[in-house]
Design goal:
2 copies of one chain form a homodimer. Helices cover 44% and strands 18% of the residues of chain A. The first copy, chain A, has 144 residues and is α/β, with parallel strands linked by helices. The longest helix of chain A has 15 residues. The radius of gyration of chain A is 14 Å and the shape is globular. Chains A and B meet through α3 and α4 of A and α3 and α4 of B.
């Protein structure tokens, strides 16, 4: 597996160790990691701290996103898909979309290429987490 | 004008005083302000710190958003519209949509009621800011 996705999975596991939601992301630019992050809803008490948001934030004010690729362990929700579309990130690679479908059509309609790697490790991380923490998961996706 | 929008405009002006982008937001729940914020891209060096994001963050982990109304001085971009849709904020009141159109259809397609008050003060704040800072504005909306 490509190093970028391995790093995103490391971020997801780090979140789990911290008592948080196991989703991780990495932002690549010209083959280099320029940002990484994980969901910090629990850790920071911040409902907006989805993995993709944290990752893009950690990359700082980079200007144009036209050469970036976002790797994320789970298909993005509307918050994160909105960030991807608004900032013009043209490609995303997702670990899986079985435990959360997101809205593939919204991304495609806005010219975002989506590559879904359907990785067992990502699916298992989320399935186990959701089974143990259904309320926290529903809070994170706005379904309380 | 309703106090909530006045407070959102205060937030926008506060951002301008700090050298930032003049957009402000307020989150109301059952008639009370539970969060307020303004764009902090410049102040925090944070590309994700749009006014609506800061405002929802400042309200903390409130659980369900079903009784909330978001007041914002400018029509939300996809990042902020994505947050509104994902968290189930059912109504937004916007100061204006002349200097940034956003995507009204996306919001309506996801059952968000949008009330556009077309306020001169909000339009003037943004028109003057964009005229003086075109590059910063294009950075904020991902159009560099």
């Amino acid at each position: 597996m490509e190093e970028s996705m391995e790093t995103a999975i490391e971020e997801a596991k780090l979140s789990l160790q911290e008592g948080g939601i196991p989703i991780g992301s990495v932002l690549m630019c010209d083959g280099k990691i320029i940002g990484r992050g994980h969901n910090r809803r629990v850790q920071n008490g911040d409902p907006l701290a989805h993995a993709e948001i944290e990752c893009i934030r950690n990359a700082g004010r980079i200007g144009s996103y036209s050469n970036t690729i976002l790797f994320t362990t789970l298909m993005p929700c509307y918050l994160c898909s909105g960030a991807i579309v608004q900032f013009g990130i043209e490609k995303i690679v997702v670990g899986e979309s079985r435990t959360f479908k997101g809205d593939l059509e919204f991304l495609k309609d806005h010219w975002v290429a989506v590559d879904d790697w359907d990785i067992d490790e990502c699916i298992e991380l989320m399935e186990e987490f959701i089974k143990k923490n259904p309320t926290l998961w529903n809070e994170d996706i706005g379904k309380l």
